[in-house]
């Protein structure tokens, strides 16, 4: 039986996410990002297409590396204005039954105690359909917004993250027993005090407290991780149940998949059981010619300067200072490292100029673009799955929401015809849909903190 292909929608509570400039397209509805009806309709469209989840990116801070200030980001709406992703989830959960929600939260600026309660609350309200994309940040502007001079060094951020994860696992898994809540009206007893215990933690973070929420359906949300630097891979091998990566070619993505699976196996986990998603954009139309015309139409609205504003933030390099025909060279800094390696180290067969980076990233970010009829795009997706070892795709949009509607209505039926895509959702929580269980497995780092 062929390996199933999984799909998440890659979105963000902002105007221009991965395709700067496309907000100007006459059919695009990105200006509705701050209205609930848009998000409710999107969630229903994705559920119609049996998407596993809506993966919501987020960033704290402004992309102010390009040109040395925020002007370019503001002018092009490059991930600013940007609103909180978590506040969208309850409304979308109410309007759907199965769709999962992966929310990005930067642990560098979230105190773990209230954050743990916020995620438990979302797990309750979604009936177990919440996941957390763990990030440590990459913008100095975010650190300054939190009262710091600059962000913590790259690898040091992951060291802090390890302590953070241990603490929230203790709260989610170890503070309340499964049978703590009895809600016995006759006895006047809601919670058995002896089945709730304080969490004591001493490390980078200190805590001595009870978790404030009773056990939620999954307890620990499904853990996503997006970062494939050496430190990021080690973190993913220990904590991630799903990994999100990006790369422009199969030769970039395949070794990253293999490295994380191998590292996880070395930690006693089932590396093959970690779901790997890579960034891609699918431009699907009834025929190849119609899809090519659609892409050409989209490119008329693409914004290379907005794209370079994104890349400057991701890599810490001010692309405004480089000649458009200059080849991009590798620079070691404290920003995100995988984005820069995508165009300097990961694919030895290609050297990217600044102009090429701007053109490529202007539609769909650093990932590939699949263009064609449902048959053609399904062929491309199958080849990526077979040749890289990924399990599926985080699909970015070009035009909102028509990119996702075309995938749901045109591509998904073709994948189903090939036996590569589910015909119905499984029942239960997001983790049960993905892995057949509600709780983290016994080999996961959170499991050792369970209340016993």
From TrEMBL:
Protein's recorded name: Alkanesulfonate monooxygenase
InterPro entries per the UniProt record, alphabetical: Diverse_substr_monoxygenases (IPR051260), Luciferase-like_dom (IPR011251), Luciferase-like_sf (IPR036661), NTA_MOA (IPR016215)
SUPFAM superfamilies according to UniProt: Bacterial luciferase-like
Keyword Oxidoreductase listed: yes
Gene3D superfamilies cross-referenced by the UniProt entry: Luciferase-like domain
UniProt record similarity statement: Belongs to the NtaA/SnaA/DszA monooxygenase family.
Molecular function GO labels: alkanesulfonate monooxygenase activity
